[in-house]
Design goal:
The protein has 13 helices and 12 strands. The protein has helices at about 1-15, 40-55, 65-75, 90-95, 135-140, 175-185, 190-200, 210-215, 230-235, 265-275, 280-290, 315-320, 325-335, and strands at about 20, 30-35, 55-60, 80-85, 100, 125-135, 165, 200-205, 225, 240-245, 250-260, 290.
C-alpha cells in the first residue's frame, strides 16, 4: 500500500507541468519552462518553438512572485530550465541569488542596451509600460460630468473610492512596478504619501497582473491600473476599455532567463535565441499588443507607440535592491 502511494506521488510530481507541445517518452530531451506570461502566448510560443526545433516543451504558469521564489529555492537542482516573463527587477533578484545562468545570445547584439543585462543573466523581449484604463460606460454612470483621469494624481479624487482596481505588488511584478513608479517619480516620502492616499480608493487588489484589465472589460470597475498593452488589447477586442498613458510613467522589459544548473542547457539556449527572434516577437506582439525589443519584429496594430509615452528615468537596479524593504512596508502600512 505504501509502495503504491509512493508511486502515485511520484506520478503526480512528474506531470505537474501542463504540456504545451508534443510529448516524448524521453523526458531528458524535454525543455521545461516556468512562465509568468499568460497561457495563450506561452502555448503559442512553445508550440512554435517545438515546430521549429523539434524540442518538446512543458510549462508551468503562475504569478511572478511564486515563480521567482521557486527559481531561487530550486537553484541547486532546478525543476525548470527557463524563466519566461517578469520585469527585469525580478530577474535581477534571481541573478543576485545565484539562480540564473549567464548566456549571450547571438541576437542580443541587435537589441537596445536596456534589454540586455550587464552580466547577461537575462534578456528583455518586449517593452512594458504602465497606464490607466477606464471603462467609459461605467465611469459615465458613476461620475457624470467628471473628466477622465489623465494623470496619476487624478486617481486620488475621493469620488473614485471603491472604483479603482490595481494588482497586489506582493504577488505581481505589475503591482510592484506601479509602486516603484510612484516612489521614483515623487521621492520616497511623497511617494508613500501618494500610495497611502490612493489605496483608500482601491476596491480590490487581485494577485494577477492581468486582472485589472479583465475587470474593466467586464464592467466590474470604472478605473484600473495596468500595462498599456493589456488595456489596448481589450479595447481592440471590442471591450469598453480606454487606455490612457499618463505622464511620468515607467517602462521596463519582460525578460527571459536560463536557470543555473539547468538540466537541458542546450535547449534552453535555443529557446532564448528563439524568443529574441523577429518571428517569435511578432507572434507575441500579435497576441499581447506588447512592443517588441527586436527592431526587425512587427509591432502591434492599435497599440500605443513607446514614442507617445512620457517615461521617467527608471532605476531598475534600485527597484530590485529595495524590493524586500518596500514590500515589507507595503504589507505593514497598506495591505
Amino acid at each position: 500500500m505504501k509502495k503504491n502511494l509512493f508511486v502515485l506521488i511520484v506520478a503526480i510530481a512528474t506531470f505537474a507541468f501542463s504540456l504545451s507541445g508534443c510529448q516524448e517518452k524521453s523526458s531528458s530531451k524535454e525543455l521545461r519552462v516556468y512562465s509568468i506570461i499568460h497561457d495563450e502566448e506561452t502555448e503559442a510560443l512553445t508550440k512554435l518553438f517545438t515546430k521549429k526545433t523539434g524540442v518538446p516543451v512543458s510549462y508551468l504558469r503562475a504569478t511572478t512572485g511564486e515563480l521567482v521564489n521557486r527559481v531561487i529555492t530550486e537553484k541547486e537542482s532546478p525543476m525548470a530550465d527557463i524563466l519566461l516573463g517578469g520585469a527585469s527587477s525580478y530577474h535581477i533578484q534571481a541573478a543576485k541569488e545565484g539562480a540564473l545562468e549567464s548566456y549571450v545570445s547571438p541576437l542580443a547584439k541587435n537589441l537596445p542596451s536596456y534589454a540586455v543585462a550587464s552580466d547577461n543573466t537575462w534578456t528583455g523581449f518586449c517593452v512594458l509600460t504602465l497606464g490607466i484604463g477606464v471603462n467609459e460606460k461605467r465611469f459615465a454612470e458613476k461620475f457624470p460630468g467628471t473628466p477622465l483621469p489623465a494623470t496619476w494624481e487624478d486617481l486620488l479624487n475621493p469620488a473614485f473610492k471603491g472604483e479603482i482596481v490595481m494588482t497586489n505588488p506582493v504577488a505581481s511584478s505589475t503591482g510592484y512596478l506601479f509602486v516603484q513608479n510612484q516612489l521614483q517619480r515623487l521621492g520616497d516620502e511623497k511617494g508613500w504619501e501618494y500610495l497611502l492616499s490612493l489605496t483608500k480608493n482601491v476596491g480590490q487588489f487581485p494577485d494577477s497582473g492581468s486582472a485589472p484589465a479583465k475587470f474593466l472589460g467586464s464592467g466590474e470597475y470604472a478605473i484600473g491600473i495596468s500595462y498599456l498593452h493589456a488595456l489596448a488589447k481589450y479595447n481592440a477586442q471590442g471591450f469598453n476599455v480606454r487606455p490612457i498613458a499618463p505622464p511620468q510613467s515607467v517602462g521596463d522589459v519582460d525578460c527571459v532567463s536560463i536557470m543555473k544548473n539547468a538540466k537541458n542547457l542546450p535547449a534552453a539556449k535555443k529557446f532564448v535565441d528563439f524568443i529574441l527572434s523577429p518571428e517569435a516577437q511578432s507572434l507575441m506582439s500579435s497576441i499581447t499588443y506588447t512592443t517588441p525589443v527586436n527592431p526587425e519584429a512587427k509591432g502591434p496594430d492599435g497599440g500605443i507607440a513607446i514614442s507617445e509615452i512620457d517615461l521617467i528615468d527608471y532605476d531598475v537596479q534600485k527597484a530590485s535592491a529595495q524590493k524586500s524593504e518596500v514590500l515589507d512596508k507595503w504589507v505593514k502600512a497598506i495591505k
